[in-house]
Amino acid sequence: MSKPKRTYTTDVRKDWQDTVATLLKTIDRHIIYNGNTSDTNDSEFHIKSYHVLKQYLIDLKDWIHKEEKQKGDNNE
Question: CA 17 → CA 24, 25, 32, 43, 76, distances in Å?
């Protein structure tokens, strides 16, 4: 699979774009695995992991926006 082309123009986003992409793929994988299991323990693991990663992604994006604002960068 080829890497998608990203056109972010701020240094802050450039530094974190691969991490964000990996997080999104990992979140999606937990959703898929949760849907494919009938084991309650596995399901709980995937649901918990989904929520932890989702919150981390939200926090990271908030931090990125704050950093861009402080540096005068804006890519929105």
Answer: 11, 13, 23, 29, 14
Whole-structure pTM over 0.70, yes or no? yes
Name 23's Cβ contacts closer than 8 Å, sequence gap at least 6: 53, 56, 57, 60
- 3-class SS at 37? coil
Cα angle, residue 31 at apex, residues 5 and 76 outer, rounded to 5°: 35
Distance CA 56, CA 37 (A): 24
Per-residue pLDDT of the chain (76 residues; tens, 9 = 90+): 556 566 667 889 999 999 999 999 999 999 999 988 888 889 999 999 999 999 999 999 999 999 999 988 766 5
